[in-house]
Give the backbone structure.
Amino acid sequence: MHNKTVAYLAAISAMAFFAFSYVWFKIANETYGPVTIVFSRLLIAITFLSLYLLLTKGFEKIRKGDYKYFMLLALCEPFLYFIFEGYGLEKVSSTVAAVIVSIIPVFTAIGGQLIFNERLRAINYSGIVISFSGILVFMLSGESNLSFNTTGIILMLMAVLCATGYSLLLRKLVHNYSPVFIVNTQNIIGAILFLPLFLIIDGKEIPHLVFDKESVRAIVQLAVFASCGSFILLGYSVRIIGIARANLFANLLPVITALYAFHILGESVTIEKYAGIIIMIAGLTLSQVNGNSILSKENT
């Protein structure tokens, strides 16, 4: 199979796992706090990936000049992103969270323009406006169980900014290191950053933690499919097709999450909200249409 075809399939799979992660988090959050969930999933992911790298002799030496990029990468994701996402998901539904996170391609395009001097055309800016209109239609139409509030939205938008920073930093590293090594390294640094936070916030609750089968299963799914699979697949796709093309598939997040949440959590999705999703996806597509120089330059 052609490398680009595999890369596109990897990007789609990565976004599918990201979409599922919002639902898995909501399930785990019924029993455990956000910091406990994040710290646990990181420990599981590190164990899984370190064992793989050990068996395949995949550990690599980090170049002296790249240490700062790995630190910033881990600071963006998993540390700050998971904090904002975790507490944001306590205040908004999984589908609303996915809709907000799906604007990452827009922020990535803007970041590429500001940092790499890559210009956007009028049609791209029109797409940005249309995408936000779709989000408003989605959130404000009808009555449903898709709960959200201002604080939750702000937290999720901060998560989007962190994810954008992660994507731009990933671009600097993915051509020099394997995706598995990058993800394992960011998880190790992230776990170190999370340890004091975990001990301060949830440390006193450790003796009182209960074992809930469904919540633990959700955490394991978060670790294997989201903390490992999603980031590795995203890294691979960025290496082959570039950051903008890979992140464009984030447009699928609200659709996949809405359908998954409908079956798993019973969250209702009205016709009006589906219309909002369609408008948003149309806008995001326009934001990436010809002229978004990230598409043509980042592979050079």
About this structure: The chain has one domain: 3-297.
